[in-house]
UniProtKB/TrEMBL annotation:
Gene: ugpC
Source species of the chain: Hoeflea alexandrii
Record keyword Hydrolase present: no
Subcellular location as annotated: Cell inner membrane
GO molecular function: ATP binding
Lineage, top ranks: Bacteria, Pseudomonadati, Pseudomonadota, Alphaproteobacteria, Hyphomicrobiales
Name of the featured protein: Sn-glycerol-3-phosphate ABC transporter ATP-binding protein UgpC
């Protein structure tokens, strides 16, 4: 079943830079798509258009059969995880995860349940009262994941989430994120420049170059061509 559909989506920035040429593809429900390509090829712009953080110049973006071009990011049923974690430094881990839910008017009991479930999944239970500055890089990234998970989104968007971590931790987090995504069955779009992440996490890889799709296929198709 198609979950996300891009129909001739393009982006021209106000300064005239054409970051994404008209691009079309479908993402199946539960699929893990990895976007790769050289710096400046348009990965981040494409992801940010899906997130509603960047206006779509032309084309239609549909999520669950509904055109969302003009729909507020908060109503798209998506969660985004960033490279720099974007945690609130003055808030505890618990409140970092609860914040968005409180804003949406969720009740205290329900919030508590959601936060504690996410904390259990992410091995954060004993860190709930700490602040981000008192956590390791991997733990901070888990909090960022937790903040995404508590909202039970139907779509995860990841913008190079592991690139600030050292190689060992990156390997570990890659396995954790993939396992969690499988378990939750959440459709995911993941931007990276790490070929190992692309090969091991993707159901399908999309290679962008100069704002166009250069290749699209399974890891085997993309990386083992004659
Ligand atoms: P990637 O994520 O693959 O590195 P980006 O999507 O960030 O690529 O950038 C694609 C192109 O758009 C680049 O040429 C970049 O310089 C340009 N670009 C990105 N953001 C902006 C912006 N806010 N204004 C103008 N040009 C931008
Ligand atoms: P602050 O970061 O301002 O000190 P608090 O830690 O006092 O905030 O928490 C604010 C709210 O979140 C309170 O309603 C509190 O009950 C709830 N809360 C915080 N941590 C937990 C926790 N570990 N379990 C349950 N509720 C919590």
């Amino acid at each position: 079943m198609v979950h996300v559909s891009l129909e001739s989506i393009s982006k021209v920035y106000p300064n005239g830079v054409r970051a994404v040429q008209p691009t079309s593809f479908n993402i199946e429900k539960g699929e893990f798509i990895v976007l790769v390509g050289p710096s400046g090829c348009g990965k981040s712009t494409l992801l940010r258009m899906m997130a509603g953080l960047e206006e779509i110049t032309e084309g239609d973006l549909s999520i669950a059969g509904r055109v969302v071009n003009d729909i507020d990011p908060a109503e798209r049923d998506i969660a985004m995880v960033f490279q720099n974690y974007a945690l609130y430094p003055h808030m505890t881990v618990y409140n970092n995860m609860a914040y968005g839910l409180r804003n949406r008017g969720m009740g205290k009991t329900e919030i508590d349940k959601a936060v504690k479930e996410a904390a259990t999944m992410l091995n954060l239970t004993e860190y709930l009262e700490r602040r981000p500055s008192q956590l390791s890089g991997g733990q901070r990234q888990r909090v960022a994941m937790g903040r995404a998970i508590v909202r039970s989104p139907s779509l995860f968007l990841f913008d190079e989430p592991l690139s600030n971590l050292d190689a060992k931790l990156r390997g570990q987090m890659r396995i954790e994120i993939k396992a969690l995504q499988r378990r939750l069955g959440v459709t995911s779009v993941y931007v990276t420049h790490d070929q190992v992440e692309a090969m091991t996490m993707a159901d399908r890889i999309i290679v962008l170059n100069g704002g166009r799709i250069e290749q699209i296929g399974t890891p085997a198709e993309v990386y083992h061509q004659p």
